[in-house]
Amino acid sequence: LGALIFGLLFAPHPKASEMAKSLLAFKDLFLIGFFLSIGLTALPDINMLMMSGLLVLIIPIKFMLFFWLFTRLQLRGRTAYLGGLVLSNYSEFGLIVGALAVSLGMLGEKWLVVLAVTTSISFIFTSIVYRYSHSIYQRIKEPVKKLESPVRLKEDIYPEITRARILVVGLGRVGIGAFTSLNKIADSRVWGMDADRAKIQRMRRDGMNVINGDGEDVDLWENLDIRHVQLVLLALPSIEDAINITKQLKNAGYSGKIAAIARYEDEVSALADNGVDKVFNFFTEAGLGFAEESLSLVE
Fold first, then answer.
1. Which of 3, 101, 238, 279 supports an S-S bond with 107, CB 3.0-4.6 Å?
2. Are 77 and 148 in contact (CB under 8 A)?
3. Nearest Cα to 147, choosing from 220, 71, 43?
4. pLDDT digits (tens, 9 = 90+) for 90-145
């Protein structure tokens, strides 16, 4: 509770997000230690594994319930589908509650092992499914859309980009730098897109041409007018996201050029093989720019 309270106190600080990223490795380490301590409790027997198997069979039922609930709350089918996938697995926080129940004598130690095995299997199952979730949605989107609520939330209304020739997807540090530089050249014909709604609202207040959207959303690309867009810049840290967005753009009929950034040489070839026209190696280009700027000091 003390750590939670201190976290709440640090949350408003400008460096809070950086601190959270730095502490993430510690969180994962402690979580592994927690799982290890549970694993040392007892060796699962056939009865425990059978019970875990029965609990795993509930995952599809949980998914259907979450999907039904989200669609009744007027969320889009894709949002309900992805949200249901994430929430249908068993949480490690359930293990924490289970460990507390065992320590209080409310549960036997064998049940803690059952919960641990079930949680581990659910993590494996949902991580595999979620890895291909966008490809799966591409195949089942029509029946999923039929289950949507006829009423659309304001946040789910597709945005419009007018007179856009260049679109920057991902407005992090690299993306915002590219967006700002391009705006000086192409003026209002440059638009930016990011999934962070709060960031987009701040940028709109500053008069910038930006929209809120998930680049991996095939429905977004199909409903976004990108006929006049000639160049899409993918300023994303994840190569998997960049490859998936490239595929979504191609599926939506986009015929312009696509540029992306990579950190390693194998990522450069992977992006190029998946349809990206120009790939910039982040560290190579940064080193080149650093050298050129430094040489100007002695010329």
1. 101
2. yes
3. 71
4. 887 888 888 888 888 888 888 888 888 888 888 888 888 888 888 888 889 889 98
Q: At what angle do helices 109-131 and 58-72 cross, to 10 degrees?
A: 60
What number of residues does the chain have? 299
Q: Name the CATH superfamily for 158-295.
A: NAD(P)-binding Rossmann-like Domain (3.40.50.720)
**How far apart are alpha carbons 78 and 173 in whole angstroms?**
28
Question: E strand or H helix at 177, and its extent?
Answer: helix 173-186
Cα–Cα distance, 110 to 41 (Å, whole number): 8
Confirm if 22 and 99 have CB atoms less than 8 A apart.
Answer: no
Tens digits of residue pLDDT in 226-258: 888 999 999 998 888 899 999 889 888 888 999
Contact 199, 206 (CB under 8 A): no
Provide CB contacts within 8 A for 249, sequence distance 6+: 221, 226, 232, 258
Q: What sign has the CA pseudo-torsion 56, 58, 61, 67?
A: negative
- State which amino acid sits at residue 88: S
Which residues are 233's β-sheet partners? Answer: 168, 259
- Residues 32, 109: contact at Cβ < 8 Å? no
Nearest to 209 by CA among 143, 271, 159, 283: 159
Q: Where are the domains of the chain?
A: 41-146, 158-295
